[in-house]
Write a structure and sequence with these properties.
The chain has about 375 residues and is α+β, with helices and mostly antiparallel strands. The chain has helices at about 20-25, 30-40, 45-60, 60-65, 165-200, 205-220, 220-230, 240-255, 255-270, 275-280, 285-295, 300-320, 335, 345-350, 355-375, and strands at about 85-90, 90-105, 110-125, 125-135, 140-145. The protein is built from 15 helices and five strands. Strand 1 and strand 2 form a beta hairpin. The longest helix is centred in the middle third of the chain and has 37 residues, at about 165-200. It is globular. The protein starts with 20 loop residues before the first helix and ends in a 5-residue tail after the last helix.
Length: about 375
């Protein structure tokens, strides 16, 4: 048997391994700090978050950054192609400007033909007076970030069949399309947490009823279900009420996946010591679920909600594209794409498909942001 060596020096309770400042900062950080540090390492998610922040902030000042008002028509420029912004003309720096158009009507095909006229240099104006508008529908104003030259045009994304600037309409449509996702996920979030929490906490016949309801809803194909519920709304409704009806439909249909995720988490946590202690202290079930169980996996719920918003944006776009969603005069990206249903029109005027670009960008950004939040939700892995 090998000998044992015992240190006979008195034990010092304050003697511990010296940690570096970086280690000390890591060991004393809260879970939210650890999540933030891990999220910052996901460069694509951070970039997506910045893009989404820009999109949502732009909806607050849409009237200011749009060159034209939503309903401004340019009767002389119907189905005009997009104009490119230039800085140099014949090797000399001029500043931001666009070339004007030379117009002629093809009498054989009755098609309007626009050609760039290099002799028409139209310098852009910034922080200028332009089309009057009512900011957020309340305050009269006419200040714009950028305006066309006096007597000139500025059609960055071309014009539609009524001569309306497509770029300005895309900016105005973002306010509706992006808001649908937030309002819809709020409805879905509330229903999913309440019904999923009740199902997981009580179990028994309550759990069976809620789970069977979820299975019935999930058994329907989503697009036909959206279409049938949307078609059930009265055609006499104001477009604003139709907007709220669409968001409510998207929220009522999309809560099932979140409810099952909440149920599974609560089933795993309801027997933990902290939940049992709260129950023994006389806490009500609603308090146990809302104050103790749900906050313990709130990070996962945030990641799930972020991944669900793109589905709602696509749902509104699909319904409006089919003519069953938001209707004019309210403008959304789906309403703008409704003008591009005819293949012949798209072949002649391909810029009418440009409203699909922000849809793709926002959906991808939300997916990348959701991936980053999902990885950051478990900082100890």
């Amino acid at each position: 048997m090998s000998p044992r060596f015992v240190d006979k020096a008195p034990f010092d309770p304050y003697d511990r391994e010296v940690l570096t400042p970086e280690q000390e900062r890591f060991y004393t950080a809260s879970q939210w700090q650890l999540m933030w540090w891990r999220f910052k390492r996901h460069k694509l998610a951070v970039a997506s978050g910045i893009i989404l922040l820009i999109f949502y902030l732009s909806t607050l000042i849409t009237e200011f950054i749009a060159p034209y008002d939503l309903h401004t028509r340019n009767a002389q420029f119907i189905h005009t192609p997009p104009q490119r912004v230039h800085l140099f003309h014949e090797g000399q720096f001029v500043g931001p400007f666009v070339y004007g158009f030379a117009y002629r009507l093809d009498m054989a095909t009755l098609k309007r033909e626009y050609t760039v006229d290099p002799n028409k240099i139209q310098r852009l104006r910034f922080f200028c007076r332009g089309d009057p508008y009512r900011f957020w529908g309340r305050f009269p104003a006419d200040l714009h970030l950028v305006c066309p030259a006096e007597g000139g045009t500025l059609f960055l994304a071309g014009t539609d069949r009524l001569g309306r600037d497509l770029f300005s309409r895309i900016l105005h449509g973002a306010r509706v399309s992006l808001t649908v996702g937030l309002i819809g996920i709020s409805v879905s979030f509330v229903l999913g947490i309440i019904l999923g929490g009740i199902s997981g906490y009580y179990g028994g016949w309550i759990d069976n009823v809620i789970q069977r309801l979820i299975e019935v809803i999930r058994s329907f194909p989503m697009i036909p279900l959206w279409m049938s519920l949307s078609a059930a709304m009265p055609v006499t409704w104001d477009p604003l009420w139709v907007f709220f009806g669409i968001t409510l439909i998207l929220g009522l249909v999309d809560w099932t996946g979140l409810a099952r995720a909440v149920r599974s988490k609560i089933l795993a946590l309801r027997e933990e010591d902290f939940a049992q202690a709260a129950r023994l202290m006389g806490a009500r079930p609603s308090r146990i679920i809302g104050r103790h169980l749900v906050p313990s996996f709130m990070s996962h719920l945030i990641a799930s909600a972020t991944l669900s918003i793109p589905g709602m944006i696509l749902g509104e776009t699909a319904l409006s594209f089919l003519g069953l969603g938001v209707r004019a005069p309210i403008t959304s990206w789906g309403v703008l794409l409704n003008d591009a249903q005819n293949v012949n029109v798209v072949a002649l005027y391909p810029w009418l498909m440009l409203p699909v670009v922000p849809v793709v960008i926002v959906v991808l950004a939300f997916n990348f942001l959701g991936d980053g939040l999902r990885d950051a939700a478990d900082p100890y892995s």
